[in-house]
Hints:
Helix 2 packs parallel to helix 14 (255-280) and helix 3 (35-59) packs antiparallel against helix 5. This protein has two domains: 1-130, Tetracycline Repressor, domain 2 (Orthogonal Bundle), CATH 1.10.357; 157-281, Four Helix Bundle (Hemerythrin (Met), subunit A) (Up-down Bundle). The mean pLDDT is 96. With 281 residues, the chain is mostly helical. It is globular. It contains 14 helices and no strands. It starts with a helix and ends with a helix. It has helices at 2-8, 11-29, 35-59, 61-64, 82-104, 106-127, 134-138, 140-150, 158-181, 183-188, 194-197, 200-225, 229-251, 255-280.
Amino acid sequence: MAIEYLKLMKPHVIWLLVLSALVGYIAAAGPLVNSIKLIELTVVGFLSTGGSAAFNMYYERDIDSLMVRTMKRPIPSGKVAPLNALTFSIAVSLSGFTLSYVWLGPWVTLMIMLGWFFYAVLYTIMLKRRTWLNIVIGGFAGNAALLSGWIMAKPIDLEAILLSMVIYVWIPAHIWSLAYYARDDYRKVNVPMLPTVVDERASVRIISILNLASIIYMLVLYQLYMAKPIGYILVIPATIAGIIVTARALIKPGNESFRVMFKATSPILLLFLLAVIISSV
């Protein structure tokens, strides 16, 4: 049963957000990284983002039960009662906020709560079922994750904002490539993701351009603020892989190409974040 509650927190999704917060702290602190603070930020990030993910599962239980991709999740499968899921999400979220305030202070907590609000309230409740801009606006939750780590070490500046935009620019191609090959599911439940509101050729072009823009942005940003030879060992292969995946989607568009793009976007972002860590310490 415990494993079903863990699934509510979407650990396979939120780990990149938790890592983004750690990267924000490490990039701001440079070589003066406090290992205890890293552990505290990891715990707080896991609880707060996991709590928002659990709330998302509670709120979307009706459409999850109708979509092939999600019908086996804990609530629609009957393994976790909706009220229990809601209680769990609130308890986990409040635990994350409280520990953040005690361990990391009010500014970090403010950023963490802002990220929670953007995902659980603005994206899940207010926007997802109303407009295809849902992920464009809700994507600021990714910025908040990285900035929550940065503000632990020093005030937010232009470098912090530009670094956090890596997550924001990455999100649309990541989510819409999934929505492309699952577009029949999204149409079934009337969720207006981009591939369900524009024709397929336009979807292919828009998602591919955004994915390429995300990759170029990572490369340019790394060149501007890090530019350490050791980091290029990770950044260059990520760039090449991203270009190949994008070219494949443009040349041979289809469900399989966009499934590959979706699967590739997370490792590409991971390589960039690891490059930032290596270059900072």
